[in-house]
# Entry
Amino acid sequence: MDNKQKKKVGFSIGYFGLMMLLAWVFQILVYQPMVLRLQEVPYSEFLRKLESGEIEEVVLSESRLLYTCCGDDEANPRRHNVVRVDDPDLIERLTEAGVKFSAEASAGGLVSQLGWIITLLPLALIWYFLFRRMQQGGASVMSIGKSKAREIAGELTGVKFEDVGGLDEVEVELREIIDFLKDPQRYTRLGAKLPKGVLLVGPPGTGKTLLARATAGEAGVPFFSISGSDFVEMFVGVGAARVRDLFEQAKAKAPCIVFIDEIDAIGQSRASAMSLGTNDEREQTLNQLLAEMDGFEANNGVVIMAATNRPEVLDKALLRPGRFDRQVQVVLPTDTGRQQILQIHTAKVPLAEDVSLARLAQITAGFSGADLANIVNEAALLAVRQERQRVTMEDFDMAIERVVAGLQRPMTLKPELKRRVAYHEGGHALVAQLLPSTDPVHKVSVIPTSKGALGYTMHMPEEDTYLLSKQELQEQLAVMLGGRAAEWVIFHDRSTGAANDLERVSAIARRMVTEFGMTEALGPVRYASDAGMSYLGPSNMMRQDISPETARTIDVETRRIVEESEALAVRLLEERSDALHQIATVLLEKEVIGGDEIRRIVERGDAA
Ligand code: ADP
Ligand code: MG
Ligand code: ZN
# Structure
């Protein structure tokens, strides 16, 4: 209220000033000259009238003189206006004629008097506009939280899971939340506690925002959303106020979903946020968010969802139990997922007969849902430009090219390259499966990642490891070398794809020799240098005082360990090349394969 009034006052002062200025300008530039020019009389005429005694009174100003004639109407004397000529005898003549005369501050004098106003006015105006801005900003300090939150007041999104493609597994995870939102009492009656917060984690454009909206749509509850980036560039305290307000409104509308998009913008780890200035604001906002999340009971019907593509920068406090205690991975779509997404986005696009979504899905490995939506749109635009009634496969091909060019992403893998990646990743997975001491495989994928990897194998550590035997370490090395070994077994060839693996392998092997004393030849002596150990972790540096022979032995021993491990991997893969082929085939077909399926393939072969 207070602010509104203040704002109004500011407004009227501004308008008043502006009107004054306009009136003045009008007077000086338009009205005065107009009036003056109307009755302008030549100087000679004035002199003639002066001599003939017709003139009654004269008012002198610097550049003009105004006179009234005796013949004029008494009550409303008409003023005649003469441009003054340089006439040194004027005063004498006036005295002679016996005319009453006086002087008036000239227009020029007026202008010079008003001069300071002219110089001050622009300054005043600038100041005024700045002030108004600040006031608006200032107003926001107190009321923006409210007004903005009102704008986003719980929206019924109407988006359903059928609008989201290729995320079936994630949808299953969210079902429980939807059930809860539909009927909170059913859960509270039994005292069940639901997770307060769900964090959607995944690369940009994979549909996290869409998924959150669909969750609200499926449950039929209001959706309050706010984006972390909204908080950037705000006055200190605004973000916190906004969070408070958002939760207040949400609680009033429970059951509902509060969605914080791009939470990394506020939830960045307090230690890692190095930037000055915004730091304070972010911290306050984050603290408010944490306080709100702790402040209400689970089960009051508000479910908080958040999305990020940079989970690693999030403050640990956010991930503690009772906050975002459930994380859902939203991954890049697989082949079938891409096909579903294409279907969703082409539902309203007339397609030519030659368009095969299955084929499109095949050649768009590594594309996100947003990329695919973009492709469909581009293709439709191309068709429109060609004045075609239907979108053809050619349009799609061109659209893909365009989008790829914009993305600078490794274009779709050529079939032979994909085959190679499939065997490489399959090799890692199979060796891991065959060596029981190593972490079981969780998932293998040959979808190129945006970070440049052509594929990856995800392991699932069963337990934290504190101590590893030499045997276990060597088996781990074998897993890391499994990709390279598989390429050797199948293609009798090496590729650059193993460079990363080799880097990790070499580092571990070297530590086995120089730090863990795991070789007979060198014995239980530490050879690694302690310099640089402090905070950068173990370094690859050697002690300065070791003899050249010892250094050579270290190299030889490191190499021996790596070669032994690789031999182990090659042997395992040759023995079970049947399983390797099967895994690679599944990978080529579906692009991903789960750990369970790999175990099944391996066991089936065992039984045979
Ligand atoms: P994110 O929040 O993960 O960055 P968005 O949800 O904003 O991604 O996705 C942007 C757009 O891309 C969506 O509006 C939708 O049109 C499309 N899209 C992304 N993923 C999918 C998907 N899985 N299914 C259907 N459309 C998708
Ligand atoms: Mg988003
Ligand atoms: Zn590899």
Summary: Residues 1-9, 137-152, 532-539 have pLDDT under 50 and may be disordered. Residues 150-329 form a domain with the Rossmann fold fold (CATH 3.40.50.300).
